[in-house]
Every structure is written in structure tokens, then in C-alpha cells.
Amino acid sequence: MVKSHIAPSILASDFTELGCQCNKVIDGGADWLHLDVMDGHFVPNISLGLPVIESLRKKIPSSRCFFDCHMMIENPEKWVQKFADIGIDQFTFHYETTKNPKELIKLIKSCGLKAGCAIKPGTDVEVLYELAPLLDMCLIMTVEPGFGGQKFMKDMMPKVEHLRNKFPNLNIQVDGGLGKETIGDAATAGANVIVAGTSVFKAEKPSEVISYLRKEVDDNLEARGIKD
Ligand SMILES: O=C(CO)[C@@H](O)[C@H](O)COP(=O)(O)O
């Protein structure tokens, strides 16, 4: 059994008003904040890191919002403890960045964090089958990681479907190009954690978009009989 979680990606926010904008989407119904950490090596972009997330955490406690960190970085092992120390809730590493994913999951959990594993569009979903029972969440990228505002890759949906059929109780996240036009595909395939940057932060009424996304997910989880 799983719940819907709507996770706006702050990459699409106005960074000069970050705290206010985050509070607005949380008041509008967001369950998680999705924090995209990029190092300029694993992906061709640099976004934000420890100081920004630490400041946000001081304003927004865990009891108010779950901090979901998507680590688009090389050598993720080096950063787990540091991100745990500033109070994040979940550390999602990329499968492509580590030789020993099982050890990394152990490390993440030993630091008191939830563990997620992401795969790029070119990576086979089968790599997650052995790891999924050890994980709190799998992330199927629906764009090439690195930038917000890209087109949703519908051809990633069979990955979500395979994963959902094998693991009915797993949190399955999709990330990239999600909004009102694409949520139907993701929800039908079985995704329950929806990252939405542009569609939420650039909306006139973020709360209305969040409710729309949640309803699509909830209806589909209910139809599958796996809604918590
Ligand atoms: O991880 C990434 C991009 O690498 C995403 O989290 C995007 O930031 C989502 O943005 P939208 O496609 O929803 O604008």
C-alpha cells in the first residue's frame, strides 16, 4: 500500500524568494520538497548544495515538510553524512554513480535517512529489482537529469509499470516534465511520488495544480487497490 506524495522541485522556483515560495507550495498541499543537488560533473549543470538546504531546513522543520534530496553528483558516498547532519529526510543517489549500491544504501540508512535510487533514461529498470527491497524509493527519470523545463519522456512509463507490478508497496517517483498534461500517463503506469517543478512553481495557483496531480495519482492507486 502506498500514498500519493506531491514533491515540487525547487529548481523551478525564484531563488531570490526561496523561503516564501517553498512555504507557499507547502501551504498549497505539497507533501515533500524535491531538492536537486547537481555537481557539474555527473550532470552538465550546477544547482545548489549544503548551505541553501541547511538554511531552508532551519525555516522549514521536518514536521512541516519532508526534504527529498535528489543527488545528481559523483561520489555520493562522500556526502551522505554531511547531508544527514543538516537534517534532510531522504537521500536519493543515482545508480550510475556507484559501484556498490548496496553498501551505499546501508550507509544512508545508518545515518538515519531514507534511501532512494534513481536511474537515468538510458538505464534498464532491471538494475533496480535487486535493490528495491532495500530501498524506500525508486526514481525513474522522465528527462535527462540536469535541467528543469524539459519534455516528459512517455517511453519511460513501461519501467514504472514493471516496477509497480513487481513491488506494489514501493514508493515510485517520476521526475521531469510532469504537469496536468502528463500526469495521466505517470499515474496510470503506477507512479505515486510526483516531482513537479515548472508546472507547480510557475503556476498562478500552485495549490490547484497540486490537487490535480494528487487526484490523478489517488484515483489510479485506488483502481489498483494499493492506496494507503
Ligand atoms: O531532476 C530534475 C532535472 O534534473 C528535475 O527535478 C527537474 O527540476 C524537474 O523540473 P520540471 O521538468 O518539472 O520543470
UniProtKB/TrEMBL annotation:
CC cofactor note: Binds 1 divalent metal cation per subunit.
The protein, known as: Ribulose-phosphate 3-epimerase
Active-site positions on this chain: 36, 175
GO BP: any one term: pentose-phosphate shunt
UniProt-recorded Gene Ontology molecular function terms: D-ribulose-phosphate 3-epimerase activity; metal ion binding
Record's keyword terms, sorted: Carbohydrate metabolism, Cobalt, Isomerase, Manganese, Metal-binding, Zinc
PANTHER family, alphabetized: RIBULOSE-5-PHOSPHATE-3-EPIMERASE (PTHR11749)
Pfam families (alphabetical): Ribul_P_3_epim
Organism from which the protein derives: Hanseniaspora osmophila
Sites where the protein binds a divalent metal cation: 34, 36, 70, 175
Catalysed reaction equations from the record: D-ribulose 5-phosphate = D-xylulose 5-phosphate
InterPro entries, alphabetized: Aldolase_TIM, Ribul_P_3_epim, Ribul_P_3_epim-like, RibuloseP-bd_barrel
